[in-house]
Amino acid sequence: MKSTQILNKSLLFAVILTIVAAGLTGVALYALDLASANGPDGVKLTAIALIVALLGAGIGGLVAARRGATPGSLSRDVAGFYLDEILGHVSDAVVISTSDGTIVRINHSASTLLGYDEKELLGQPLEVLFSRSSERFDERSGDREKVGEGHFKTRDGQEVPVSYTFSRISGPNGSQRILIVFQNIADRMRVEQRIRYLAQTDALTKVPNRNQMHHLLRRAIARARKEQQALALLQLDLDRFKNINDTYGHSAGDATLEAVVERLTSNLPDGTLIGRFGGDAFAIVAEGLPPGAQAHDSAASMASQIVDSLRGVFLIHGHHLYLTASIGIALYPEDGARAMDLSRNGGLALYDAKRRGGDDFAFYDPDTKEDVAKRLLLKSKLRQSVENDELLLYYQPRVDVRDGRIIGAEALVRWDLPGQGIVLPSEFIPLAEETNQILKVGEWVLERVCTDYKLWQKSIAIPGRISANLSLLQLRQPNFVGRVRNICRKHGVSPSCLELEITETTLMDDSGRTVKVLRDLHDLGLYLAIDDFGTGYSSLSAVQQFPINTLKIDRSFVFNAAMDSDDATIVAAIIEMGRKLNIDVVAEGVESEQQLNVMRKLNCNLVQGLLFGGPMTAADFHELMLAQQRGTNTYEALIA
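User: That's the sequence. What structure does it adopt?
Assistant: Structure tokens below.
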């Protein structure tokens, strides 16, 4: 990056020296002001714009006029030679045309990228560059600039993915030139495609992972709704699979999971959707079922066939293993109209099949499920949790691996339900989302964080930055930015001390409105993070449009990075992405020194996880920061 900036500056100074030599000092000073005002990109674009302007006007004529000579007495060829030399050293591909689209200049980078000799394109129309009509630049339009990504066509007809900028440069007497600056982005697109594949595919079994299965299930539901058909979600879990890992080792367990997928694939109709939910849990989607009782019978037949097929012996690492499986079935539309509902109800049915001893299947039956009653009870009690002061807030430290210092923490909410004990977020946050109680819970969390932070500041100058999770419903809340501003003012805490975490799914939902709210929060001074990054569908270009400060790598990738090359590739790609965008990257779920060493090797500087202690009370975190202030931080020894 620095070498490119140096080259861009050298390019600009070379052009400016040419202008100064011509005696046009005022133009040179203006160019320097313009470049400094627009940063690194301004340097490059200012230089190229000057080149095109000089080409349009004819620098030889300018010099001659300045010195009182005739335009022909000072050769345009000399000026053209220097300008060609400058363009030849520009790393970006550059093509220049007349206002009607006739190519008049092309630099070495462009000819190399497109496979032409440098003079072969001269006099040709711009259309020869474009691979697709939708990407053509209309030289007759009034647009001064067009920026985007598309495909250019090489001499042999191949498509090259590029990012490009079309600009109109005005010269004397109303003359114009069209400047096209472009870069080959094939490598970047391959990296993004690889990240998407690894993020959506289970690395072991090569079938869709949990996140991708939910996405595909939503699409299957949409097709079933359109065709007025039924579908079945079968959630499968191997019985007592832990015994295989404990007895024969995890490598045998992995081989068993691969063999299970092979057997499912060979025993189910072509095109049946099979995915892995994690561990020894799988999901199968049966589409195109006739509605009503026939859907029930078809799903039962499939489940019975699967259970029977998995009873057969598996030869794993020279051992004969015998498996059984349990299956829970939820039907669309009778058991739910959304993927979330089917997944939840299929899980309840699976629990019922397990409770009956396994090696069997069960359909979702809401009338006989104790879990349904429990959920209803939790929903009812959750409404009073804030008023009854039943919520608790814990803090998990975030550590800089370069020196072992604590640089902040993540705030984690818990529910201390009387008569039941601690309820984890995985149980009550979905219920809070369903009942809109997440608005009260989210506001309570921000209030509590600010209260604790103000207390810490009495004895600690800089307690670090505290992050808290942000839901989609909170983002949609009227005047949410104003609410956050008021909470910070009320407690006397600067917004820059806080960081709000959102998931990729939340980020991309109604992205137009979301980006506006996030920019307002960013302008307020808050830091913004994408939580569980790598499990959704964000590309580099999508991340760039949001004011994001931090990417938090999902713990599932961190957990396996030391043993799984695919997960390590994802982590490395995310770290590199963050570095290029000047975004902090945090590895979540670091639980062992081995995982810590892998993150350090991959140059991930910020981590959090059980290796540095579990979630702790505000008082305990305060004491931890005081110890660091006294110079007795135990994490520094761990890092060393």
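The radius of gyration is 31 Å.
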